[in-house]
Write a structure and sequence with these properties.
The longest helix is centred in the middle third of the chain and has 16 residues. A 3-stranded antiparallel sheet has the order 1-2-3. Helices cover 51% and strands 7% of the residues. It has 2 domains: 64 residues, no CATH class; 44 residues, no CATH class. It is mainly alpha-helical and 121 residues long. The protein contains 5 helices and 3 strands.
Length: 121
């Protein structure tokens, strides 16, 4: 009998069991807890590759440092999208061009005090 492919929900549940400290889900979509970013669940290797990336490891270490200082963090479910939206809105209203986010001093300042990697543009 031919093998049938697992459904998306089955894959999500499987990866949640396999990487409980690294990944969370809303039922259909996988999110990286350290990066607060969507991770593809179509192939296991994509989740493994994301977990091995330098940015993921940096975010994970940064989050560990932040939790040692602040024990009452809010749920990160939509914080990145909220952060990106709020940052975009603030820059537009202040008439600051998006390319200013590429300035290493400004970007470093934001990453230091926000605790997340900032989008380039």
């Amino acid at each position: 009998m031919p093998r049938t492919s697992a459904s998306n929900k089955q894959l999500v549940a499987k990866y949640l069991r396999e990487f409980p400290a690294e990944i969370r889900s809303d039922g259909d979509i996988l999110y990286c807890t350290a990066c607060d970013k969507r991770v593809s669940c179509s192939q296991r290797s994509q989740a493994i590759q994301h977990i091995a990336t330098r940015s993921h490891i940096e975010n994970k270490n940064r989050n560990k440092e932040r939790t040692s200082y602040q024990a009452f963090l809010t749920s990160p479910s939509s914080s990145k999208s909220t952060l990106s939206t709020d940052l975009c809105r603030a820059l537009v209203r202040a008439d600051i061009p998006f390319h200013k986010l590429k300035n290493p001093h400004f970007k470093g300042f934001l990453e230091t005090y926000i605790g997340k990697k900032m989008p380039d543009e």
